[in-house]
Design brief:
heterodimer; A: 157 residues; alpha+beta; Rieske Iron-sulfur Protein; four-stranded antiparallel β-sheet; 1 helix; elongated; B: 344 residues; mainly alpha; Cytochrome Bc1 Complex, Chain C; 2 domains; two-stranded antiparallel sheet; 13 helices; globular; binds protoporphyrin IX containing FE; binds FE2/S2 (inorganic) cluster
Chain lengths: 157, 344
Protein backbone atom coordinates (compact mmCIF):
# COMPACT_ATOMS: atom_id res chain seq x y z
CA UNK A 1 0.00 0.00 0.00
CA UNK A 2 2.59 2.43 1.11
CA UNK A 3 4.94 1.75 -1.77
CA UNK A 4 2.08 2.09 -4.18
CA UNK A 5 0.96 5.43 -2.90
CA UNK A 6 4.54 6.63 -2.92
CA UNK A 7 5.13 5.74 -6.57
CA UNK A 8 1.77 7.24 -7.38
CA UNK A 9 2.65 10.57 -5.85
CA UNK A 10 6.23 10.86 -7.11
CA UNK A 11 5.53 12.51 -10.46
CA UNK A 12 3.11 14.93 -8.90
CA UNK A 13 5.29 15.82 -5.97
CA UNK A 14 8.24 16.32 -8.28
CA UNK A 15 6.24 18.78 -10.33
CA UNK A 16 5.03 20.44 -7.19
CA UNK A 17 8.58 20.61 -5.94
CA UNK A 18 9.76 22.22 -9.17
CA UNK A 19 6.92 24.72 -9.09
CA UNK A 20 7.66 25.60 -5.47
CA UNK A 21 11.35 25.90 -6.29
CA UNK A 22 10.70 28.35 -9.12
CA UNK A 23 8.26 30.33 -7.01
CA UNK A 24 10.62 30.43 -4.06
CA UNK A 25 13.72 31.38 -6.01
CA UNK A 26 11.78 33.92 -8.05
CA UNK A 27 10.29 35.60 -5.02
CA UNK A 28 13.65 35.70 -3.24
CA UNK A 29 15.39 37.22 -6.26
CA UNK A 30 12.61 39.72 -6.86
CA UNK A 31 12.33 40.91 -3.28
CA UNK A 32 16.09 40.75 -2.84
CA UNK A 33 16.82 43.02 -5.78
CA UNK A 34 14.13 45.43 -4.64
CA UNK A 35 15.65 45.51 -1.15
CA UNK A 36 19.03 46.14 -2.75
CA UNK A 37 17.65 49.14 -4.70
CA UNK A 38 16.33 50.53 -1.41
CA UNK A 39 19.77 50.14 0.18
CA UNK A 40 21.23 51.93 -2.83
CA UNK A 41 18.74 54.74 -2.32
CA UNK A 42 20.14 55.20 1.18
CA UNK A 43 23.76 55.04 0.06
CA UNK A 44 25.16 58.55 -0.48
CA UNK A 45 26.78 59.85 -3.64
CA UNK A 46 30.49 59.76 -2.86
CA UNK A 47 32.59 62.06 -5.01
CA UNK A 48 36.01 60.93 -6.23
CA UNK A 49 38.99 62.50 -4.50
CA UNK A 50 39.80 65.81 -6.17
CA UNK A 51 42.40 68.01 -4.51
CA UNK A 52 42.00 71.74 -4.93
CA UNK A 53 44.14 74.69 -3.77
CA UNK A 54 42.50 76.56 -0.93
CA UNK A 55 43.83 79.94 0.24
CA UNK A 56 44.76 79.79 3.92
CA UNK A 57 45.94 83.32 4.73
CA UNK A 58 49.30 85.06 4.76
CA UNK A 59 52.61 83.51 5.87
CA UNK A 60 53.12 86.35 8.34
CA UNK A 61 50.03 85.35 10.27
CA UNK A 62 51.78 82.17 11.41
CA UNK A 63 53.95 82.78 14.49
CA UNK A 64 57.61 81.80 13.92
CA UNK A 65 58.25 78.25 15.14
CA UNK A 66 54.61 78.22 16.09
CA UNK A 67 51.21 77.08 14.97
CA UNK A 68 48.13 78.74 13.52
CA UNK A 69 44.75 76.99 13.35
CA UNK A 70 42.69 77.99 10.29
CA UNK A 71 39.05 76.99 9.86
CA UNK A 72 38.48 76.34 6.19
CA UNK A 73 35.16 75.13 4.80
CA UNK A 74 37.12 72.05 3.69
CA UNK A 75 38.17 71.35 7.29
CA UNK A 76 40.37 72.71 10.08
CA UNK A 77 44.12 72.93 9.35
CA UNK A 78 47.16 73.56 11.54
CA UNK A 79 49.72 75.75 9.72
CA UNK A 80 53.27 75.57 11.08
CA UNK A 81 56.27 77.76 10.38
CA UNK A 82 59.79 76.49 11.08
CA UNK A 83 63.03 78.30 10.29
CA UNK A 84 63.05 77.12 6.70
CA UNK A 85 59.57 75.96 5.71
CA UNK A 86 55.83 76.31 6.06
CA UNK A 87 53.84 73.13 6.43
CA UNK A 88 50.34 72.02 7.24
CA UNK A 89 48.74 69.25 9.28
CA UNK A 90 45.11 68.25 9.44
CA UNK A 91 43.65 69.34 12.80
CA UNK A 92 41.42 66.27 12.89
CA UNK A 93 42.48 63.71 15.49
CA UNK A 94 43.24 60.35 13.86
CA UNK A 95 41.56 58.52 16.73
CA UNK A 96 37.86 59.35 16.39
CA UNK A 97 37.78 62.71 14.69
CA UNK A 98 37.73 65.50 17.30
CA UNK A 99 39.62 68.74 16.64
CA UNK A 100 42.97 69.01 18.39
CA UNK A 101 44.33 72.18 20.02
CA UNK A 102 47.93 73.45 20.12
CA UNK A 103 49.30 73.89 23.64
CA UNK A 104 52.35 76.17 23.27
CA UNK A 105 53.69 75.51 26.79
CA UNK A 106 53.68 71.74 26.41
CA UNK A 107 54.62 72.10 22.70
CA UNK A 108 52.01 69.47 21.93
CA UNK A 109 48.71 69.10 20.13
CA UNK A 110 46.18 67.75 22.62
CA UNK A 111 42.85 66.20 21.74
CA UNK A 112 40.05 67.04 24.19
CA UNK A 113 38.09 63.85 23.53
CA UNK A 114 40.26 60.96 24.74
CA UNK A 115 43.47 62.77 25.59
CA UNK A 116 45.50 61.87 22.49
CA UNK A 117 48.73 63.93 22.13
CA UNK A 118 50.93 64.71 19.15
CA UNK A 119 54.25 66.54 18.89
CA UNK A 120 55.03 69.50 16.60
CA UNK A 121 55.65 67.10 13.69
CA UNK A 122 52.27 65.44 14.17
CA UNK A 123 53.62 62.19 15.61
CA UNK A 124 51.65 60.51 18.40
CA UNK A 125 53.37 60.88 21.76
CA UNK A 126 50.56 59.70 24.03
CA UNK A 127 47.08 58.20 24.09
CA UNK A 128 44.91 56.16 21.76
CA UNK A 129 45.40 57.76 18.28
CA UNK A 130 46.54 55.06 15.84
CA UNK A 131 48.37 57.29 13.32
CA UNK A 132 50.28 60.59 13.08
CA UNK A 133 48.25 63.64 12.02
CA UNK A 134 47.60 63.71 8.29
CA UNK A 135 50.09 65.86 6.37
CA UNK A 136 48.65 68.40 3.97
CA UNK A 137 50.52 69.76 0.95
CA UNK A 138 51.30 73.48 1.04
CA UNK A 139 52.05 75.93 -1.76
CA UNK A 140 53.41 79.43 -1.24
CA UNK A 141 52.77 82.23 -3.70
CA UNK A 142 53.71 85.87 -2.95
CA UNK A 143 53.50 85.25 0.77
CA UNK A 144 50.08 83.62 0.42
CA UNK A 145 49.61 80.12 1.80
CA UNK A 146 47.57 77.59 -0.19
CA UNK A 147 46.70 74.10 1.06
CA UNK A 148 45.69 71.17 -1.14
CA UNK A 149 42.46 69.67 0.16
CA UNK A 150 39.52 67.56 -0.97
CA UNK A 151 37.00 69.74 -2.78
CA UNK A 152 33.63 70.00 -1.06
CA UNK A 153 31.97 71.90 -3.93
CA UNK A 154 29.20 69.44 -4.75
CA UNK A 155 29.24 67.42 -1.57
CA UNK A 156 25.94 68.68 -0.20
CA UNK A 157 23.54 66.36 -2.00
CA UNK B 1 -27.83 42.58 27.79
CA UNK B 2 -28.29 46.19 26.82
CA UNK B 3 -28.49 47.29 23.21
CA UNK B 4 -25.17 49.10 23.12
CA UNK B 5 -23.17 46.07 24.27
CA UNK B 6 -25.02 43.84 21.85
CA UNK B 7 -24.35 46.28 19.03
CA UNK B 8 -20.61 46.17 19.77
CA UNK B 9 -20.55 42.39 20.22
CA UNK B 10 -22.25 41.84 16.89
CA UNK B 11 -19.69 44.01 15.05
CA UNK B 12 -16.68 42.71 17.02
CA UNK B 13 -17.51 39.06 17.65
CA UNK B 14 -15.16 38.34 20.55
CA UNK B 15 -16.41 36.52 23.62
CA UNK B 16 -15.33 38.62 26.67
CA UNK B 17 -15.02 35.38 28.63
CA UNK B 18 -12.20 34.26 26.32
CA UNK B 19 -10.20 37.35 27.30
CA UNK B 20 -10.64 36.76 30.99
CA UNK B 21 -8.44 33.67 31.19
CA UNK B 22 -5.23 35.11 29.69
CA UNK B 23 -5.70 38.25 31.77
CA UNK B 24 -5.92 36.15 34.91
CA UNK B 25 -2.68 34.30 34.15
CA UNK B 26 -1.40 33.05 37.51
CA UNK B 27 1.98 34.43 38.61
CA UNK B 28 4.22 32.89 41.29
CA UNK B 29 4.12 34.86 44.55
CA UNK B 30 7.75 35.88 44.37
CA UNK B 31 6.72 38.32 41.62
CA UNK B 32 5.08 40.35 44.38
CA UNK B 33 8.54 41.39 45.56
CA UNK B 34 9.19 44.84 44.14
CA UNK B 35 12.43 44.01 42.32
CA UNK B 36 10.43 41.66 40.12
CA UNK B 37 8.31 44.58 38.95
CA UNK B 38 11.38 46.03 37.27
CA UNK B 39 10.50 44.50 33.90
CA UNK B 40 7.32 46.52 33.78
CA UNK B 41 9.13 49.79 34.52
CA UNK B 42 10.84 50.13 31.12
CA UNK B 43 7.52 49.29 29.46
CA UNK B 44 5.78 52.11 31.35
CA UNK B 45 8.63 54.52 30.64
CA UNK B 46 8.53 53.61 26.95
CA UNK B 47 4.90 54.78 26.87
CA UNK B 48 5.86 58.03 28.64
CA UNK B 49 8.67 58.57 26.12
CA UNK B 50 6.43 57.94 23.14
CA UNK B 51 3.80 60.37 24.43
CA UNK B 52 6.24 63.19 25.24
CA UNK B 53 8.29 62.43 22.11
CA UNK B 54 5.25 62.90 19.87
CA UNK B 55 4.62 66.25 21.59
CA UNK B 56 8.23 67.31 20.99
CA UNK B 57 7.93 66.64 17.23
CA UNK B 58 5.29 69.40 17.03
CA UNK B 59 8.01 72.03 17.52
CA UNK B 60 11.32 70.33 16.81
CA UNK B 61 12.89 70.95 13.37
CA UNK B 62 15.49 68.38 12.20
CA UNK B 63 17.80 70.67 10.28
CA UNK B 64 21.34 71.70 11.28
CA UNK B 65 20.48 75.39 10.94
CA UNK B 66 17.18 75.23 12.84
CA UNK B 67 17.43 72.32 15.29
CA UNK B 68 19.19 74.20 18.08
CA UNK B 69 16.85 77.20 17.84
CA UNK B 70 13.81 74.92 17.87
CA UNK B 71 15.02 73.16 21.01
CA UNK B 72 15.65 76.54 22.68
CA UNK B 73 12.18 77.53 21.62
CA UNK B 74 10.66 74.43 23.22
CA UNK B 75 12.70 74.95 26.39
CA UNK B 76 12.16 78.68 26.93
CA UNK B 77 9.16 79.88 24.91
CA UNK B 78 6.60 77.21 24.12
CA UNK B 79 4.00 76.90 26.87
CA UNK B 80 4.90 73.92 29.07
CA UNK B 81 7.70 73.15 26.62
CA UNK B 82 10.20 72.85 29.47
CA UNK B 83 7.91 70.32 31.14
CA UNK B 84 7.46 68.14 28.05
CA UNK B 85 11.16 68.22 27.21
CA UNK B 86 12.12 67.73 30.86
CA UNK B 87 9.93 64.66 31.22
CA UNK B 88 11.24 63.22 27.96
CA UNK B 89 14.86 63.65 29.09
CA UNK B 90 14.21 62.46 32.63
CA UNK B 91 12.30 59.41 31.42
CA UNK B 92 15.14 58.56 29.03
CA UNK B 93 17.59 58.53 31.92
CA UNK B 94 15.24 56.47 34.07
CA UNK B 95 14.65 54.09 31.17
CA UNK B 96 18.33 53.23 31.11
CA UNK B 97 18.44 52.77 34.87
CA UNK B 98 15.31 50.60 34.70
CA UNK B 99 16.60 48.38 31.91
CA UNK B 100 19.94 47.96 33.70
CA UNK B 101 18.25 47.03 37.00
CA UNK B 102 15.88 44.60 35.27
CA UNK B 103 18.82 43.00 33.52
CA UNK B 104 20.74 42.68 36.78
CA UNK B 105 17.77 41.07 38.52
CA UNK B 106 17.31 38.59 35.63
CA UNK B 107 21.02 37.87 35.76
CA UNK B 108 21.31 37.18 39.47
CA UNK B 109 18.14 35.06 39.61
CA UNK B 110 19.56 33.22 36.57
CA UNK B 111 16.15 33.42 34.92
CA UNK B 112 17.81 33.39 31.47
CA UNK B 113 18.59 29.67 31.58
CA UNK B 114 16.99 27.00 29.40
CA UNK B 115 14.37 27.43 27.97
CA UNK B 116 14.47 31.24 28.30
CA UNK B 117 17.78 31.91 26.50
CA UNK B 118 16.18 33.63 23.54
CA UNK B 119 14.34 36.03 25.79
CA UNK B 120 17.65 37.11 27.26
CA UNK B 121 18.94 37.66 23.71
CA UNK B 122 15.82 39.71 22.92
CA UNK B 123 16.42 41.59 26.16
CA UNK B 124 19.99 42.51 25.24
CA UNK B 125 18.66 43.68 21.86
CA UNK B 126 16.19 45.88 23.76
CA UNK B 127 19.07 47.21 25.84
CA UNK B 128 21.04 48.07 22.68
CA UNK B 129 17.97 49.75 21.19
CA UNK B 130 17.62 51.76 24.41
CA UNK B 131 21.22 52.97 24.16
CA UNK B 132 20.80 53.82 20.46
CA UNK B 133 17.68 55.78 21.39
CA UNK B 134 19.72 57.78 23.89
CA UNK B 135 22.57 58.36 21.46
CA UNK B 136 20.39 59.51 18.56
CA UNK B 137 18.26 61.50 20.98
CA UNK B 138 21.02 63.68 22.27
CA UNK B 139 22.37 64.18 18.75
CA UNK B 140 19.14 65.97 17.86
CA UNK B 141 19.69 68.95 20.17
CA UNK B 142 22.58 70.13 18.00
CA UNK B 143 24.63 71.58 20.81
CA UNK B 144 28.35 70.91 21.12
CA UNK B 145 27.84 67.59 22.89
CA UNK B 146 25.39 66.44 20.18
CA UNK B 147 27.78 67.29 17.41
CA UNK B 148 30.96 65.78 18.83
CA UNK B 149 29.19 62.69 20.12
CA UNK B 150 27.89 62.16 16.59
CA UNK B 151 31.39 62.56 15.12
CA UNK B 152 33.04 60.22 17.62
CA UNK B 153 30.17 57.71 17.70
CA UNK B 154 29.93 57.33 13.95
CA UNK B 155 33.71 57.20 13.51
CA UNK B 156 33.77 54.18 15.81
CA UNK B 157 31.82 52.25 13.18
CA UNK B 158 34.40 53.06 10.50
CA UNK B 159 36.97 51.02 12.43
CA UNK B 160 35.21 47.75 11.57
CA UNK B 161 37.11 45.87 8.86
CA UNK B 162 35.60 45.79 5.33
CA UNK B 163 32.04 46.86 6.18
CA UNK B 164 33.13 49.80 8.33
CA UNK B 165 33.41 52.48 5.65
CA UNK B 166 30.21 51.63 3.72
CA UNK B 167 28.31 51.41 6.99
CA UNK B 168 29.68 54.79 8.08
CA UNK B 169 28.65 56.42 4.79
CA UNK B 170 25.25 54.84 5.05
CA UNK B 171 24.72 56.08 8.57
CA UNK B 172 25.96 59.60 7.91
CA UNK B 173 24.46 59.90 4.45
CA UNK B 174 27.87 61.04 3.20
CA UNK B 175 31.58 60.71 3.99
CA UNK B 176 31.35 63.43 6.66
CA UNK B 177 28.76 64.47 9.19
CA UNK B 178 26.41 66.62 7.08
CA UNK B 179 22.75 67.71 6.97
CA UNK B 180 21.73 64.19 5.89
CA UNK B 181 23.14 62.85 9.14
CA UNK B 182 20.66 64.75 11.28
CA UNK B 183 17.73 63.62 9.11
CA UNK B 184 18.86 60.05 9.42
CA UNK B 185 19.29 60.20 13.19
CA UNK B 186 15.91 61.86 13.49
CA UNK B 187 14.32 59.15 11.39
CA UNK B 188 15.92 56.48 13.55
CA UNK B 189 14.87 58.21 16.72
CA UNK B 190 11.22 58.78 15.90
CA UNK B 191 10.35 55.97 13.46
CA UNK B 192 12.75 53.07 13.16
CA UNK B 193 13.75 52.60 16.81
CA UNK B 194 10.26 53.07 18.32
CA UNK B 195 8.83 50.54 15.85
CA UNK B 196 11.63 48.08 16.64
CA UNK B 197 11.27 48.57 20.35
CA UNK B 198 7.49 48.12 20.32
CA UNK B 199 7.89 44.95 18.27
CA UNK B 200 10.63 43.56 20.49
CA UNK B 201 8.77 44.38 23.71
CA UNK B 202 5.73 42.50 22.38
CA UNK B 203 7.92 39.52 21.44
CA UNK B 204 9.69 39.70 24.82
CA UNK B 205 6.47 39.73 26.81
CA UNK B 206 5.01 37.08 24.50
CA UNK B 207 7.88 34.76 25.36
CA UNK B 208 7.52 35.52 29.08
CA UNK B 209 3.88 34.48 28.72
CA UNK B 210 4.63 31.31 26.75
CA UNK B 211 7.20 30.10 29.27
CA UNK B 212 5.52 31.75 32.24
CA UNK B 213 7.78 33.52 34.70
CA UNK B 214 10.86 31.53 35.77
CA UNK B 215 10.49 29.88 39.19
CA UNK B 216 12.84 31.11 41.89
CA UNK B 217 15.47 28.40 42.46
CA UNK B 218 15.11 28.00 46.26
CA UNK B 219 11.55 29.19 46.74
CA UNK B 220 9.33 26.45 48.24
CA UNK B 221 6.14 28.51 47.92
CA UNK B 222 3.70 27.28 45.32
CA UNK B 223 0.94 29.88 45.65
CA UNK B 224 0.05 32.11 42.74
CA UNK B 225 -1.84 35.36 42.18
CA UNK B 226 -3.54 36.67 39.06
CA UNK B 227 -1.85 39.01 36.56
CA UNK B 228 -5.04 41.08 36.36
CA UNK B 229 -5.92 42.91 38.53
CA UNK B 230 -3.26 42.18 41.19
CA UNK B 231 -0.02 42.46 39.24
CA UNK B 232 -1.29 45.21 36.96
CA UNK B 233 -2.12 47.19 40.08
CA UNK B 234 1.40 46.78 41.43
CA UNK B 235 2.84 47.96 38.13
CA UNK B 236 0.42 50.90 38.16
CA UNK B 237 1.75 51.90 41.59
CA UNK B 238 5.31 51.74 40.25
CA UNK B 239 4.25 53.81 37.24
CA UNK B 240 2.58 56.46 39.38
CA UNK B 241 5.55 56.76 41.73
CA UNK B 242 7.83 57.13 38.71
CA UNK B 243 5.67 59.88 37.25
CA UNK B 244 5.50 61.77 40.56
CA UNK B 245 9.26 61.48 40.91
CA UNK B 246 9.80 62.63 37.35
CA UNK B 247 7.50 65.63 37.70
CA UNK B 248 9.24 66.77 40.84
CA UNK B 249 12.65 66.29 39.30
CA UNK B 250 11.69 68.40 36.30
CA UNK B 251 10.19 71.13 38.50
CA UNK B 252 13.42 71.50 40.45
CA UNK B 253 15.82 70.82 37.58
CA UNK B 254 14.21 72.17 34.41
CA UNK B 255 16.04 71.20 31.20
CA UNK B 256 18.82 73.42 29.84
CA UNK B 257 20.74 73.52 26.60
CA UNK B 258 24.50 73.60 25.94
CA UNK B 259 26.40 75.85 23.53
CA UNK B 260 25.48 75.71 19.84
CA UNK B 261 27.39 73.09 17.83
CA UNK B 262 30.51 74.52 16.17
CA UNK B 263 31.96 72.06 13.66
CA UNK B 264 35.54 73.47 13.75
CA UNK B 265 35.99 73.61 17.52
CA UNK B 266 35.87 70.74 19.99
CA UNK B 267 35.35 72.24 23.46
CA UNK B 268 38.04 71.50 26.04
CA UNK B 269 35.82 69.65 28.49
CA UNK B 270 33.59 67.26 26.69
CA UNK B 271 32.28 63.89 27.67
CA UNK B 272 29.25 61.75 27.00
CA UNK B 273 26.31 61.01 29.32
CA UNK B 274 27.03 58.82 32.32
CA UNK B 275 25.77 55.60 30.73
CA UNK B 276 28.52 55.78 28.13
CA UNK B 277 31.24 56.37 30.76
CA UNK B 278 32.48 52.73 30.83
CA UNK B 279 32.99 52.67 27.04
CA UNK B 280 34.46 56.15 27.14
CA UNK B 281 36.99 55.25 29.84
CA UNK B 282 37.89 52.09 27.95
CA UNK B 283 38.47 54.00 24.68
CA UNK B 284 40.80 56.41 26.47
CA UNK B 285 42.84 53.59 27.97
CA UNK B 286 43.41 51.40 24.95
CA UNK B 287 44.52 51.66 21.36
CA UNK B 288 41.81 52.21 18.78
CA UNK B 289 41.64 48.58 17.64
CA UNK B 290 41.57 47.18 21.18
CA UNK B 291 39.07 49.85 22.18
CA UNK B 292 36.55 48.90 19.53
CA UNK B 293 37.40 45.17 19.52
CA UNK B 294 36.99 45.01 23.29
CA UNK B 295 33.59 46.69 23.10
CA UNK B 296 32.44 44.22 20.46
CA UNK B 297 33.60 41.27 22.58
CA UNK B 298 31.78 42.71 25.60
CA UNK B 299 28.48 43.11 23.75
CA UNK B 300 28.78 39.70 22.09
CA UNK B 301 29.43 38.14 25.48
CA UNK B 302 26.32 39.84 26.82
CA UNK B 303 24.19 38.50 23.95
CA UNK B 304 25.51 34.95 24.29
CA UNK B 305 25.57 34.86 28.09
CA UNK B 306 22.91 32.13 28.60
CA UNK B 307 24.88 29.82 26.32
CA UNK B 308 28.18 30.72 27.99
CA UNK B 309 26.60 29.98 31.37
CA UNK B 310 25.42 26.56 30.14
CA UNK B 311 28.91 25.83 28.83
CA UNK B 312 30.56 26.82 32.13
CA UNK B 313 28.11 24.58 33.95
CA UNK B 314 29.08 21.66 31.76
CA UNK B 315 32.83 22.25 32.20
CA UNK B 316 32.75 22.83 35.96
CA UNK B 317 29.42 21.82 37.47
CA UNK B 318 28.29 23.57 40.67
CA UNK B 319 31.36 25.79 40.91
CA UNK B 320 29.22 28.89 40.48
CA UNK B 321 31.49 30.18 37.74
CA UNK B 322 28.53 32.16 36.36
CA UNK B 323 28.33 34.09 39.62
CA UNK B 324 32.07 34.80 39.77
CA UNK B 325 32.34 35.87 36.13
CA UNK B 326 29.09 37.82 36.20
CA UNK B 327 30.00 39.69 39.38
CA UNK B 328 33.45 40.45 37.96
CA UNK B 329 31.85 41.84 34.80
CA UNK B 330 29.43 44.06 36.69
CA UNK B 331 32.14 45.24 39.06
CA UNK B 332 34.46 46.09 36.18
CA UNK B 333 31.73 48.09 34.46
CA UNK B 334 30.86 49.96 37.64
CA UNK B 335 34.52 50.67 38.43
CA UNK B 336 35.02 52.13 34.92
CA UNK B 337 31.92 54.25 35.33
CA UNK B 338 32.82 55.62 38.75
CA UNK B 339 36.44 56.13 37.71
CA UNK B 340 35.36 58.24 34.75
CA UNK B 341 32.87 60.15 36.90
CA UNK B 342 35.54 61.05 39.44
CA UNK B 343 38.69 61.47 37.37
CA UNK B 344 36.98 62.87 34.27
C1 LIG C 1 12.90 47.83 26.97
C2 LIG C 1 13.35 46.98 27.75
C3 LIG C 1 12.64 45.82 28.47
C4 LIG C 1 11.34 45.64 28.82
C5 LIG C 1 10.17 46.59 28.58
C6 LIG C 1 11.26 44.35 29.52
C7 LIG C 1 10.10 43.82 30.08
C8 LIG C 1 10.03 42.61 30.78
C9 LIG C 1 8.93 42.16 31.61
C10 LIG C 1 7.64 42.94 31.89
C11 LIG C 1 9.24 40.91 32.11
C12 LIG C 1 8.39 40.06 33.07
C13 LIG C 1 9.13 39.80 34.39
C14 LIG C 1 9.54 41.03 35.14
O1 LIG C 1 8.75 41.98 35.21
O2 LIG C 1 10.68 41.06 35.68
C15 LIG C 1 10.53 40.56 31.56
C16 LIG C 1 11.19 39.35 31.77
C17 LIG C 1 12.47 39.02 31.28
N1 LIG C 1 13.38 39.90 30.71
FE1 LIG C 1 12.93 41.81 30.13
N2 LIG C 1 12.50 43.77 29.51
C18 LIG C 1 13.38 44.64 28.89
C19 LIG C 1 14.74 44.45 28.73
C20 LIG C 1 15.43 43.26 29.08
C21 LIG C 1 16.86 43.11 29.06
C22 LIG C 1 17.85 44.23 28.75
C23 LIG C 1 17.11 41.80 29.41
C24 LIG C 1 18.43 41.06 29.54
C25 LIG C 1 19.48 41.28 28.89
C26 LIG C 1 15.85 41.13 29.62
C27 LIG C 1 15.70 39.78 29.91
C28 LIG C 1 14.53 39.22 30.40
C29 LIG C 1 14.34 37.81 30.72
C30 LIG C 1 15.35 36.66 30.50
C31 LIG C 1 13.04 37.68 31.27
C32 LIG C 1 12.38 36.41 31.84
C33 LIG C 1 12.59 36.45 33.33
C34 LIG C 1 11.73 35.50 34.11
O3 LIG C 1 11.06 34.67 33.49
O4 LIG C 1 11.77 35.62 35.36
N3 LIG C 1 14.86 42.06 29.44
N4 LIG C 1 11.02 41.61 30.77
S1 LIG D 1 39.27 61.64 19.12
FE1 LIG D 1 41.18 62.43 19.68
S2 LIG D 1 41.81 61.11 21.24
FE2 LIG D 1 39.91 60.27 20.63
Amino acid sequence: MEALSQTATVPRSRREFMANMILGVGTTLGLGSLAFRFLEYLYPVVLPIKLVEIPAGNVNEIPPNGVRLVHLPEGPVMLEKTDNEVRALSAICTHLGCIIAWHPKAKEFICPCHGGRYDFNGNVVFGPPPRPLEKIQVKLRDGQVFVLMQSIKEEKV
Amino acid sequence: MNRATRWVEERIPVDPESLRKPLREPLPVHMKTWIFCLGGTPAILFCVLVATGILLTFYYVPSPTLAYASVSNITFKVRMGWLVRGIHRGASQLMIVAVLLHMIRVFFTRAYRKPRELNWVLGVALFMITLTFAFTGYSLVYDQLSYWATIVGTNMIAVLPVIGKPLLYMLRGGPNVNPNTLSRFYDFHIVVLPAMMALFIVAHLGLVRLHSVAPLPDDPRRETYPFFPDHVLREAIVGLLLLIGLLNYVMFFPPTIGALATPGITPGHIRPEWYFFPTYRWLKMTSLAVGIGGSIVYVTGLFLWPFIDAMLERIAPRRNLWLIIGTAFYMMTIVFMVWEAIVG
